[in-house]
Amino acid sequence: MKAIKMVAIAAVISTPLVSTLASAQQIPRFDVETHCEQVASFGGDFSNTLYNSCVDMEQSAYNGLKGPWASLPANVRNHCHDVASFGGPGSYTLLESCVQMEVSAGSNRSQFSFD
Which N-terminal residues, if any, form the signal peptide (predicted)? Predict the structure, then answer.
């Protein structure tokens, strides 16, 4: 009976961790409309052209990230999420750029030389 209680307690304790890990592997949900409204309103006047272009770029970046997102290293996902959502509603375009740069830098690390 004690073993069953221990298993039940372990399951309850680990449930939030499991759901947190699962959600971390899901591509983040950014408020694209708010982000693009801010971009389109920059400088005072609202531009429908900028808004539509922004939404199109965000959609393209989201589509490019949603497939490989879960297979990216956790440190890249976490770092780039923080970068892309810093000070605003978040941007998939920034997220995609960050991921591309981090993956590229990780496979092509600079070497220091005393020569």
Answer: 1-24
- Cβ neighbours of 38 (radius 10 Å): 15
pLDDT tens digits for range 12-71? 443 343 334 445 689 999 999 999 999 999 989 999 999 999 999 999 999 999 999 999
d(CA 108, CA 66) in angstroms, rounded, equals: 24
| pTM of the complete model | 0.74
Q: Where are the domains of the chain?
A: 2-107
Amino acid at 82: D
* Contact by Cβ (8 Å): 89, 35: yes
Mapping DSSP to helix (H, G, I), strand (E, B) and coil, where does residue 25 land? coil
How remote is the C-alpha of 97 from its chain's centroid? 11
Q: Among candidates 86, 33, 88, 41, which has minimal Cα distance to 62?
A: 33
